Amino acid sequence: MITEITLVTKNYKTQLNNFVSFYATKFKQEINGFLIWKLRSSDSYGFVNKLAKKLAYWYTTEIKRVLLYELSEQKHWHLNKEDYEQIIEKTLNEKYKKNNDLLYWEENRIKEQLEEYLLGSHYLDIEGFLRFRLKWFIEVLDNLLDELINEYLMKKEYEDFLSVLQYFVKDQPCRVGKVHLIYRKEQFELKNELWESFSREYLESIVNEEETGARDEELFMSAVIALTPKEIIIHTEENSITTKKEYDTELDFFEAVETIFSGRVNYCTNCKLCERYIRK
To answer: Sorted alphabetically, which Pfam families does this protein's record hold (predicted)?
Structure first.
């Protein structure tokens, strides 16, 4: 007995054409703007099972990417195409490639729903199934997108802030020649070119009063900006330079210093200061 399953779409024609290209027995129609593909097989249950599995993978790969673009344009129209692409690639790479459990859960759940549906109906409206059966899938993507767009906008705002600081520092006269910034075990210490320590009281006195009582990374960043040195030597453990994620803070302190003081920052992991403070 021949089993025939009809797949219909209006918005995902390119994607559906790609999908059915792997099937030998198929028939194509286009009626009133709808693309219709009829797939046939003599293996009833096996055909449905395999088709459901392939469609589930298709929904969670090709259609997912299109949905992410659609959701971005609907909710975040103020972003440009380049912004969309960065955010969507980050969604796919960070949230899925690094989280196989999420991808497997989505694909398996969609497969089960498709298999149940196709055993009772041999007509699948691609958009209709998304809209009525896969609302949860769209919600998952929507939530992930919101999360990453917020992160992206915060990062962009932070980068713009660093650019302003970089411009400000570039036009400021240097108050000191060189400073040594020592970072070890989530603690900072700032020394002058004679390796004499700046006291916390002194650092607080040269920055805005609002910085008093600030976190170490905030105080030291403000102090270094206020001092505007010609050169900054950062003394730290080698793995801290490699990862730059040694401490728990919203801001990547090392990268921020590098950006603001472009061309003035060097790292050291093997000198007398390192021997005394880093590896003691």
So the answer is: YtxC (PF08812)
- pLDDT tens per residue across span 58-87: 999 999 999 998 988 887 777 777 887 888
Residue (of 268, 240, 269) closest to 255 by Cα position: 240
| Sheet with 187-192, edge to edge strand ranges | 187-192, 178-184, 231-235, 265-268
Q: Rounded to an integer, what distance in angstroms lies between the CA atom of residue 37 and that of residue 56?
A: 17
Q: Distance of CA 176 to CAs 86, 200, 226, 262, Å?
A: 40, 17, 10, 16
Cβ atoms of residues 190 and 224 within 8 Å? yes
Closest by Cα among 178, 202, 175, 183 to 273: 183
Rg (CA), the chain: 29
- pTM, whole model, 2 decimals? 0.71
Q: Where do the structural domains in the chain lie, given as residue ranges?
A: 3-166, 173-278
Task: Please give the Cα distance from 144 to 99 (Å, whole number).
Answer: 13
What strands, in cross-sheet order, belong to the sheet with 3-9? 26-31, 34-41, 3-9, 123-125
Structure tokens at 22: 């792997």
Selection from 108, 109, 106 nearest residue 95 by Cα = 106
173-278 in CATH: which number?
A: 3.30.420
Name the β-bridge partners of 188: 183
